[in-house]
Amino acid sequence: MSGMASPDGGGGPVHDTLVTLIATPELEETLVDWLLDRDYRGFTTFDCAGHGVAAGLLSTAEQVSGRQTRVGFWLALSRAEARALVERLGVDLAGAGLHYWLTPLLAAGRIGGATRPD
After folding, report:
1. I need a labelling partner for 8 at 20 to 30 A (CA). Which of 17, 30, 52, 66 fits?
2. DSSP states along 52-86
3. Does domain 17-104 have CATH number 3.40.50.1820?
4. HSE of 12, CA atoms in CB hemisphere, 13 A
5. In the 8-state DSSP scheme, what is residue 18?
């Protein structure tokens, strides 16, 4: 991954990891503010649904629909930044019910931009 340019095509850090965070809708604004307060920029949020959750954790509407409403976040970071983010969230938002995964990011950038795949 060392040859991948940063998402802006410049000489910034290599963003080789996609961080996915899954949160409750009630936590969305808190998490957006938390990320912005720590200078994370250029992340994406999206509506999503969780499935297979224990019925006792679902509202009546969620039990009927079979899905739990969630909000997802995507951030492209270096591997070290991604791991540090997860550690900080574990301290600052412990018990908030956040889920995460880290995925290798093969390429990122603007279509037609200078960024190239590895």
Report:
1. 30
2. S--GGGS-HHHHHHT-EEEEEEEEEE-HHHHHHHH
3. no
4. 12
5. E
pLDDT at 118 over 50: yes
Tokens standing for residue 51? 């499935």
In this predicted structure, the answer to whether residue 11 has a pLDDT above a threshold of 60 is: no
Residues contacting residue 116 through CB under 8 Å, at least 6 positions apart:
3, 4, 5, 107, 109
How much is the CA Rg of the chain, to the nearest whole Å? 16
In this prediction the pTM is 0.77
Number of Cβ atoms within 10 Å of the Cβ of 89: 19
**For residue 64, which amino acid is it?**
V
Hey, is 104 helix, strand or coil?
A: strand
Domain ranges of the chain: 17-104
Per-residue pLDDT tens over the stretch 54-72: 656 666 766 666 778 899 9
